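Run log // design_07
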């Protein structure tokens, strides 16, 4: 809150103000928002694409699907009971200071702004996560808690609609003077969180704040003032604006969302006062306009939020050039820059192919270091968010495959099994002593109870919380099964007819899935089943009779008249497979990773003789790995049991003459990658050298 220096500050601000730059607004808002409530949409999806003309697979409502048993039910329960309440204690307390910032900005508390510029956005993500939980469990205490917070946020909002606590609290910065203040990132999460709150409660107290803020952004950005065109760089505001457009049907928000795409790459790339302190060019995807771009470049989170936002815009506009660019960039990410775990962002520091400095992002194609892989949890989650959107736009199952890959591997690895500790970076190998963690800011030897940069934890937790909303989509005349896991679905098809399904499975540990139709319309409709690209040899039966061709990497379509009691059986062979990389990936030459179904495995120190150097662990193609169900180990997993070879003639020199190495056989087990580092510090690797017998 501003204090006695108010009038002097205001005067100086006004004097130093450029044309189009907002004045620092120093009074909180007491005015009523404009009347927008008459035209609100009733769609309740995670993304509300009910009326989006260029979407093939439409959202089910949040709460229509709930996980009932097995893998995702277990993870969701940890989110409901531990992850989200525990995170709330952190963010509402003095360690996280997220809520404090809003209270201070609202004049309800004395103190300073703490946390990074984007801390508000991360707080909104936690609020959003809480609402997804409410959407399923309907615990009114959640709404009461969130309403109390909304009341404080409303008081923090400025009279003109501005809302980003650093500039409200601090005397030394003014709104929209430097893009590194991440104001539009905070905006994006505010808009999204408010839309979700409205969808689940029908209340407009949060939406009022969002509408007022979006009106402010429209007024500020729609004239395209020169000094503001580079601001939208960590672009969650595009997704937020499209979602607000879908909620309020106010076309100006869609227009502004599209404008943020159109502005990128339309100016000379050089440092100016709005970019000071943060890398420019490819780092923030501003060197080449999106529609002309051929390569995924720059900060991986920034890139994928941008693509996800552009996918939302395409859903409304259907512009071919935009979807062509997104397909091209998807291909570049997935087939040239993505890890086997679905993770993205190969490096902490590097350069783009056009020689711009890059942090936390993409480097050259096929350049895939394991130990120093950055793979920010947010980037991996963004990859699944982008793919979820592409799935809805194209109906192409390949996007469901990437969602599934991230969810089961590089997403979940960001949080400990007890739901209280977090990784920011998700490398594929760890070697004790190889990295000096003292010099690093977001790489850690083990998961941490708090991350000063807190973007990843709430991003992951909201993803687990909303995962039931991703599990199914509505097709033109039917329902698509995107994700497998024990659940119940109670929704309507696009024609309004009721459909109820039960899914029973021990996926991803077992490939058998049973889907029972409990209620449906009498007329024929489709049930679409995503057959993962790894699931070769899948069989599909309806009531015991072979029903459809299962082509891996596509949706299998069963079109028929369904009746209550009909049972679909999907049998996906869960084989343990060695996976090798493209020959251009030098970092994994003569090595393989182990994958079973969608789950990538690793080996870590806890399962090896003491002091074993992880780089001395080899696989032998002659030694079979046997899946073993262990319900009481690491939160319930299937391990792969078998023998590895441990090399004894250790290589210590930079280069050394080698003849036949000496190996010792050791009986051990491989664990799912996401579950590593839950048994103390140690070494770990996903890729291992293999001896072919
Ligand atoms: Zn993050």
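design_07 sequence
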């Amino acid at each position: 809150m501003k204090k006695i220096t108010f009038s002097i500050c205001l005067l100086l601000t006004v004097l130093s103000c450029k044309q189009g730059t907002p004045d620092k607004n120093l009074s909180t808002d007491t005015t009523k928002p404009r009347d927008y409530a008459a035209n609100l949409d009733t769609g309740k999806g995670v993304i509300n694409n009910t009326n989006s003309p260029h979407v093939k697979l439409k959202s089910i409502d949040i709460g229509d699907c709930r996980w009932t048993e097995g893998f995702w039910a277990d993870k969701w329960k940890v989110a409901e009971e531990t992850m989200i309440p525990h995170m709330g204690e952190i963010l509402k307390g003095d360690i996280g200071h997220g809520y404090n910032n809003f209270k201070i900005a609202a004049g309800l508390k004395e103190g300073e702004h703490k946390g990074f510029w984007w801390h508000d956005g991360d707080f909104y993500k936690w609020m959003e996560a809480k609402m997804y939980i409410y959407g399923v469990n309907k615990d009114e205490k959640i709404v009461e808690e969130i309403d109390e917070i909304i009341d404080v946020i409303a008081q923090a909002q400025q009279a003109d609609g501005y809302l980003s606590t650093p500039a409200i609290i601090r005397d030394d910065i003014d709104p929209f003077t430097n893009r590194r203040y991440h104001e539009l990132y905070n905006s994006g999460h505010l808009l999204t969180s408010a839309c979700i709150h409205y969808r689940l409660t029908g209340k407009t107290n949060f939406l009022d704040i969002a509408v007022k803020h979006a009106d402010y952004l429209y007024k500020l950005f729609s004239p395209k003032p020169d000094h503001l065109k580079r601001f939208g760089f960590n672009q969650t505001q595009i997704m937020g604006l499209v979602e607000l457009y879908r909620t309020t049907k106010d076309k100006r928000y869609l227009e502004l969302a599209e404008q943020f795409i159109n502005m990128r790459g339309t100016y000379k790339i050089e440092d100016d006062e709005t970019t000071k302190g943060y890398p420019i060019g490819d780092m923030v995807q501003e060197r080449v306009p999106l529609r002309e771009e051929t390569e995924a470049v720059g900060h991986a989170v920034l890139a994928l939020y941008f693509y996800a936002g552009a996918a939302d815009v395409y859903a409304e506009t259907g512009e071919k050039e935009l979807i062509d660019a997104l397909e091209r960039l998807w291909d570049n990410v997935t087939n040239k820059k993505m890890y086997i775990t679905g993770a993205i962002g190969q490096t902490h520091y590097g350069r783009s192919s056009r020689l711009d400095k890059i942090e936390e992002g993409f480097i050259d194609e096929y350049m895939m270091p394991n130990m120093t892989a950055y793979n920010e949890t947010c980037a991996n989650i963004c990859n699944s968010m982008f793919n979820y959107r592409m799935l809805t736009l194209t109906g192409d199952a390949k996007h469901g495959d990437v969602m599934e890959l991230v969810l089961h591997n590089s997403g979940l690895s960001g949080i400990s099994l007890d739901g209280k500790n977090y990784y920011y970076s998700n490398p594929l190998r760890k070697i004790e002593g190889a990295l000096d963690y003292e010099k690093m800011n977001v790489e850690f030897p083990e998961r941490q109870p708090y991350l000063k940069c807190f973007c990843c934890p709430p991003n992951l937790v909201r993803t687990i919380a909303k995962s039931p909303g991703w599990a199914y989509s509505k097709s033109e005349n039917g329902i698509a099964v995107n994700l497998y896991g024990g659940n119940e679905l109670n929704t309507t098809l696009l024609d309004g007819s009721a459909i109820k399904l039960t899914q029973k499975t021990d996926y991803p540990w077992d490939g058998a899935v049973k889907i029972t139709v409990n209620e449906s319309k009498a007329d024929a409709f489709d049930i679409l089943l995503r057959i993962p690209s790894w699931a070769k040899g899948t069989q599909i039966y309806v009531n015991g009779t072979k029903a459809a061709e299962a082509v891996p990497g596509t949706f299998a379509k069963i079109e028929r008249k369904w009746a209550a009691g009909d049972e679909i059986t999907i049998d996906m062979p869960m084989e343990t497979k060695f996976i090798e990389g493209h020959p251009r990936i030098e970092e994994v030459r003569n090595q393989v990773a182990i994958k079973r179904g969608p789950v990538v495995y690793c080996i870590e120190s806890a399962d090896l003789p003491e002091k074993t150097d992880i780089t001395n662990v080899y696989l032998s193609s002659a030694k079979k790995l046997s899946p073993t169900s262990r319900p009481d180990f690491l939160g319930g997993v299937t391990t792969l049991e078998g023998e590895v070879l441990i090399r004894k003639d250790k290589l210590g020199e930079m280069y050394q003459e080698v003849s036949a190495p000496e190996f010792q056989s050791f009986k051990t087990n491989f664990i799912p990658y996401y579950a590593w580092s839950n048994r103390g510090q140690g070494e770990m690797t996903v890729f291992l050298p293999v001896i072919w017998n």
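Residues 70 and 506 are 6 Å apart (CA to CA).
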